[in-house]
Amino acid sequence: MNLKRFWHILFITILMVLFPIDVFGSKEVGTLERFQEMDSRRLLEKGEKWLSVSEGADSALMCFSIVGARYANSSSRAEKELAVKALRGKWLVYFSYLYDYPKAYEAIQEALNICRDENIDNADVQISLGGLLQVMADLGGSSELYREAVSAYSSGLREAVKRKEYKLADRAFVNLVSASVALGSADSLKSVWPLYEAIPVTAEAHRRRFAKVLYKTLVASPAAGLGQEVDLLLEEVKRLPDEPEYARLRYIGLKSAAELSFRSLDTSRGLNLAKEAYGYAADNGIIDGEMEAALLLSQFQKHLGMTKESSESYDRYLRLKDKIIGSRLIQRLDELRFVAEIQQADKKMALLHEEKKRQMWMIGLLSLIVVTIAGAVLVVVSRNRKLSKANKALRRQFELSVATENRERRLLKMLEEESKYSKSSLSETERERILHAIHKIVESPETVCAPDFTIGKMAEVAGCNAKYLSQVINEEFGCNFNTLINKYRINEAARRLADDRGEWQRLTIEGIANSVGFKSRSTFVALFKQFTGTTPSDYRRSAASNKIERG
């Protein structure tokens, strides 16, 4: 190598160290990593803006999830309050956009726990919890959930009035009226009415005026004057501004007017108002209201002897209910993708930080050997390392793509299975019983890991036929019997492989495979790698290495 060429290589090397190329690609990592580097307040603002954009719920959920995950006991009070707001944002996305009520409950309950532990005002959180409980009560007809919703609304209302946050109090009182009427008990409502009645009504306080009229018509009015109260309520509905913010209030007013008309025996008007409430909810995307109005319409039609129309309305109610459940299934896939993206981005961020540290060391080394041939060697070594890391990153990207495609195929299969069982006679009560039995069975390694454990034996233990058992597994776990059992067997195998002190430490890989019910070593190894991403031997070595490091 001549001197001139050496100096060219050395100069290029120094430039590469000082101005490194992002081997991972900014587009691939960019969005999530940029969000992770933002401060919490700015992320919350971005999340709220995404909610106002069509198809922006997923991006909003990403912002809220990042801020919520930053909560720690050592965080400042300001950061803890931001975490509570972020968790309420997650609740809103799951509740109002994705209709995944279990995830919504998990988010709002976490926010409530933080408020209690850190003595943070929780009026908004309580009211949000009440909204979720009320919708779940509407879906299941649970009086207990209605009572919990009323309690949450009442608590939030008192706190909001105490802090003079009257707009928040308005939202709480409207929902409290609705939940109390559904429960058939106005005791809690009447106890907070004096507090709410004392709040003045201004020209701009449309929700407050509506809430007070709603109380007077649904709760305070005598039965003899219900016809006039319907007119009063409908007049108040017309006064609401024609804006998206008041769409749900309009629906509540129409539905309540329909119920009042039926109570006053004006059945024809009540039926027409129920139809109007259903149409308004459908036109404005209030899917839970559309479902609720369809059920109400079915009940009215049945009362009037309109058997065919009642059946059609009830079918619409069931389809809407299935639609919400279907949205939750789709969200499960989106959530898996989101978690995978966060994990992948975390790994790449760690690699980038390592790269920066290595670059600083190289600058120091290059300053000592700029006139020696060792500079050229460092260039080759550096390039090889970068290429190796780039190749590994590409391989991880490929594996992630393959995993995503597999999940999508499983989701499609799960949706096909739902269609296959659409005519099944399995009742909800029996489904819950079988599901509970399945959970109990798979928690017993001795049962699941028996080599002769079949779907027939599982159905026998669960006390049902194999067809119903297969249906519940497909619909609730998104897979067939073999996949479900193999998953629990592989989990148990992983636990036994990591046990370096007990009885399993002495067994070979084949012995571990036999102990969890696999007769073929090759089948066990293939399934273990499919579920864990690594072979049983590598998993055992990795577990042993981790224990030595934690030492």
Structural key phrases:
0% strand, Arc Repressor Mutant, subunit A, 25 helices, single chain, globular, 551 residues, mainly alpha
Provide a concise account of the structure shown.
With 551 residues, this protein is mainly α.
Structure description:
With 551 residues, the chain is an all-alpha fold. Among the domains are: 122-220; 428-551, Arc Repressor Mutant, subunit A, CATH 1.10.10. Helices cover 80% and strands 0% of the residues. It has helices at residues 3-18, 26-37, 40-51, 57-69, 77-98, 101-118, 123-140, 143-162, 166-183, 187-197, 206-220, 226-239, 247-263, 267-283, 287-303, 307-368, 374-420, 428-442, 445-448, 455-462, 466-477, 481-498, 509-515, 521-532, 536-550. α3 runs parallel beside α5 (77-98) and α11 (206-220) runs antiparallel to α12 (226-239). The longest helix is centred in the middle third of the chain and has 62 residues, at 307-368. The two termini are 50 Å apart. Residues 21-29 and 329-337 have low confidence and may be disordered.
